Amino acid sequence: MHLNHEIGEQAINKTIEQHPTIGEILQKYDIGGVTCGVGICLVKDVVSIHALGDEIETKIEKEINDYLETVNQ
Fold first, then answer.
1. Which terminus of the chain is less hemmed in, N or C, by CB atoms within 10 Å?
2. In angstroms, how far is CA 13 from the centroid of its own chain?
3. What is the rounded CA–CA span in Å between residue 58 and residue 47?
4. What is the reported pTM?
5. For residue range 24-44, what is the model confidence (pLDDT) as tens digits?
C-alpha cells in the first residue's frame, strides 16, 4: 500500500487526529483501528492486518490518496 505524503508510515491515532476523513474512510470498511485507544499502529499496518484482500486495499488506498490530493491543493 502506497499512501501519499507518507501517511502509511504514521501512527493511526495521529493521522486520524489530523485527518478525520481518513478515519471515516477506514470505518466504511469496518477497520477498527479508528477507535483503538492506543493508536500507535501505522496506517498501512492497520489496513493490512484486516486481510481484506488486494481489491479492497486498493480501493482504500485510492480513496485516501484522492482525499489527500484535495487537502493538499
1. C
2. 10
3. 10
4. 0.83
5. 999 898 886 555 555 678 888
Which residue type, as a one-letter code, is found at position 40?
I
Grid cell at residue 26: 477506514
The number of C-alpha atoms within 13 Å of 63 and in the hemisphere containing its C-beta is: 17
d(CA 4, CA 6): 5
Residue type, 46: V
Q: How far apart are CA 69 and CA 7, in angstroms?
A: 12
Q: What's the per-residue H, E or C state across the chain?
A: CCCHHHHHHCEHHHHHHHCHHHHHHHHHCCCHHHHCCCCCCEHHHHHHCCCCCHHHHHHHHHHHHHHHHHHCC
Asked whether 22 and 16 are in contact (CB, 8 A), the reply is yes
> What is the dihedral sign for C-alpha 33, 24, 71, 53?
positive
